[in-house]
Design brief:
With 249 residues, this protein is α+β, with helices and mostly antiparallel strands. It is built from 6 helices and 4 strands, in the order ααααββββαα. The longest helix has 68 residues, at 119-186.
């Protein structure tokens, strides 16, 4: 005997029933419930194996109930499309419209009759709606996870881009330091008093920046003569000595 659909689904969720077998059970879902269960008229009740083994049902209706029902049918006769059906779970009759599949606990012409879909139809709608809602929630969570993954990828891309920018800036600073260090190495052979040794000005001669040679020093000196003081030229010294000797004589 196959298991009730609700029981099969619960056992499958708990891992006590193989998934394939549970799917086979779900294909045979009976939304009407167990015929002798008095709770099957409640759309929020799903019959289980306990309902099948516990509820024995009512095989024959109560005589007093039958008399009252006959009085109602005499006063409010059934239309041609309506028929009465006995419910073994509750031990009473309900009325079913075979054309539009509506049911009522009272004769349809009774002023207090309420015509609705059967509990099986309403239960099916509720279960299907719940399954669709659960499916939509899972899809929404999946889309949300995909969006989060995309955001993480974008953040990771920006992070790597920022890291590359920082590395590039660090390399540029290192190159600038190396250039300055290289210039300093190249200028180690200069006189420490030369501005070119401790600044970015170009290297020049010892007389650069002077307006004129007021000291009459030899401005053609270079190399080791760079350190000489502003002495007069040798020719000027000889001429000065000759003039001095003439004056003494």
């Amino acid at each position: 005997m196959p298991l009730p659909s609700a029981l099969a689904a619960k056992l499958a969720r708990r891992g006590l029933l193989a998934q394939k077998k549970a799917q086979d059970q779900n294909k045979k879902t009976n939304y009407k419930g167990w015929s002798t269960c008095p709770n099957k008229s409640n759309i929020h009740h799903e019959c289980t194996y306990w309902c099948e083994t516990h509820w024995k049902g009512v095989l024959t209706p109560d005589p007093r109930y039958m008399r009252n029902m006959q009085k109602l049918l005499f006063k409010y006769p059934l239309p041609n499309s309506w028929t009465e059906v006995f419910d073994k779970g509750l031990g009473r009759y309900y009325y079913w419209n075979m054309e539009n599949d509506l049911v009522s606990w009272l004769p349809p012409r009774h002023p207090r009759s309420i015509k609705t879909l059967s509990a099986a139809k309403l239960r099916e709608k509720r279960i299907v709606a719940a399954e669709n809602e659960s499916r939509n929630e899972k899809e929404s969570e999946k889309d949300k996870d995909n969006d989060n993954d995309s955001d993480e990828e974008e953040k990771s891309h920006h992070k790597h881009s920022d890291r590359r920018d920082r590395d590039r800036d660090r390399d540029d600073r290192r190159h600038r330091r190396e250039d300055r260090h290289g210039r300093k190495k190249r200028r180690e052979d200069l006189d420490p008093m030369d501005p070119a040794a401790y600044s970015d000005i170009p290297q020049g001669t010892w007389s650069d920046g002077l307006e004129n040679n007021k000291t009459r020093a030899d401005n053609t000196a270079s190399g080791v003569l760079y350190q000489q003081r502003p002495y007069p030229a040798p020719g000027e010294v000889l001429a000065s000595n000759k003039e001095k000797s003439k004056k003494k004589s």
